[in-house]
Amino acid sequence: xxxxxxxxxxxxxxxMPVAESICNAYFEGRMRTASYLLTFLMLGTAAEGxxxxxxxxxxxxxxxxxxxxxxxxxxxxxxxxRSGDASGLAAHIGAMKIDPDLDxxxxxxxLYDSIKAAGRLPPRPRLRIEIEALATYRxxxxxxxxxxxxxxxxxxFDVATASRxxxxxxxxxxxxxxxxxxxxxxxxxxxxxFAGYSGPERLGATAAFTEASSDQLAIYQPALMxxxxxxxxxxxxxxxxAQKMRDPALMARVLSLASPDIAVRSVERVESEAWSGESxxxxxxxxxxxxxxxxxxxxxGRLAAHQPGAREYLxxxxxxxxxxxxxxxxxxxxxxxxxxxxxxLLRSDADxxxxxxxxxxxxxxxxxxxxAQLAAxxxxxxxxxxxxxxxxxxxxx
Length: 397
Fold this sequence. Notes:
With 397 residues, the chain is mostly helical. The protein is built from 25 helices and two strands. It has helices at 3-7, 19-22, 24-40, 51-54, 58-64, 68-83, 86-98, 104-119, 125-133, 159-184, 190-194, 199-211, 214-217, 221-229, 235-245, 248-257, 260-270, 279-287, 293-303, 308-316, 323-333, 336-347, 352-365, 368-379, 385-388; strands at residues 142-147, 150-155. The chain has a two-stranded antiparallel sheet. The longest helix has 26 residues, at 159-184.
């Protein structure tokens, strides 16, 4: 199903009566987050040109942006938002934008607040046009702040940045609604479409996958496996599908083939109780990948207290390039058995990297029994001098 085909079907989902049943549960939180972000953008990007000549202290600028005129027009903005009148809000924004009697500080505060209100309404055509036009708005009211030992000049209300943020929220909302409909229709094209999505579209579509049932997502598992093998950027929805279906094969592909940031976040997921039967095996897979090995080995260390298989994997991993992380994980476990195993490896004829990491594990364990193992190794005439030099001086005597 294409974007053009679903637009007409999702109008109500995007803002009016059906919104409560489809969109609002998810997007209430997203819009609240966007509102917080927009508030911080009040002192957004550094101003250009003659900002230094026009800038005011913040308290003085806010006083200029207040007063009876501001309150009257602000109340109208709030009333239009409450009534869901997107067209009315668009007309209100258009009028304020060109009103010659409005002080620039008041105008920009009103436009900023109206943009936030628009983000909580459906993106009707006229409202979208007004918001998109504000993405190139040049602020006229600036404030100065003294930060990091020098003075900076910023817009009091960053109208342009607020406009772009709301457009991203609208895009995310639309992608959520469209993907939700496509999943319900079992549309097989979602996976290939997702690979070409922008950031906001990916967020919305991933939220729809996260909300879907395992039965609804089962149809997409083969396509996701194939897409990951082909290097397509579908990691977000692959994780959501694997998590909902508890599919270890798909999660293993994510850990091995998804982008590094997604794979690292997935390490945290497979450590959870939901994957308890598969955690050690999946983390061992992640440990084979350079980008995720450290996180996976430390996670295995946390599992090793109650999963012997995880402990054995960590001991085997001492001979790998990520052996230092394995040594740190084993040191956290501690205990006489681990200390004895590390001591045995240190005194064995294993390869040098394994012995160095075993020595590191004993040093990090920092207990009397670990010190005794190190001291015994240092006194052994057959011990390689280059390794003995890594034993703390006070244990060599």
